[in-house]
Amino acid sequence: MSDPDKSQSADGQDWRGFREVDRAIAENRLTAYTWKKTWADPLGRAIMLLVFALLAGFLIFVLLYDFIL
What is the pTM of this model? Predict the structure, then answer.
């Protein structure tokens, strides 16, 4: 089996930016790669925290509304 880090495309260009994504797809870990890249980006981290906070707030609202009121 050839080493994927030393492979190049047919026209001789080395796609360094896509090498890690290609490897993630090959190893079936694209979701973990996406989460790590999003968490490393400050804006992505803020959006992710906002979405989780909104989901948690909605879940708490539904639980309180259904079981207490």
Answer: 0.56
